[in-house]
């Protein structure tokens, strides 16, 4: 896909929609509202099943884990988010089990920080070798591959 000079590839679909008379701002606000409603509903369901909501339930480590899950999988890809969450969870659980078997019970509290180190190392490796995540932006890759084919 060719774009005008100074237009990033992410902006090209938005500009195409605007050129066809669609309101990009309306759809952006609509997506934000639907996402907010879904998050509110999820919070209500969680509060119902847990019985109460406290700030201690949302520790910074949980936020870090979810953030890493999405980065590892790749933004803009639902499959990437799913695979990233499974991979990060597997490394988190595996490193926890490994520290439980390798370290004595009195040292396990200190060794628990190795789980965070394992996730950090994995994040650094993903960002070095696959900056867009494991699945990256698949639609752009498909477009690039389709553009490279020679007509038969």
Structural class: mainly alpha
Q: Which residues form runs of ≥5 with pLDDT under 50?
A: none
* H/E element order: HHHHHHH
Distance from N terminus to C terminus (CA atoms, Å) equals 20 Å
Number of strands: 0
In terms of DSSP E residues, the strand content is: under 5%
Overall domain count: 2
Biggest sheet features:
none
* Radius of gyration from CA coordinates: 21 Å
Helicity range: 55-70%
Summarize model confidence as the mean pLDDT: 81
* Helix segment tally: 7
Describe the structure.
- There is one protein chain.
- The protein has 152 residues and is mostly helical.
- The chain folds into two domains: 1-54, no CATH class; 59-152, no CATH class.
- The chain is 70% helix and 0% strand.
- It contains seven helices and no strands.
- Helix 3 packs across helix 4, helix 3 runs parallel beside helix 6 (113-129) and helix 4 runs antiparallel to helix 6.
- It is flat and about 65 Å long.
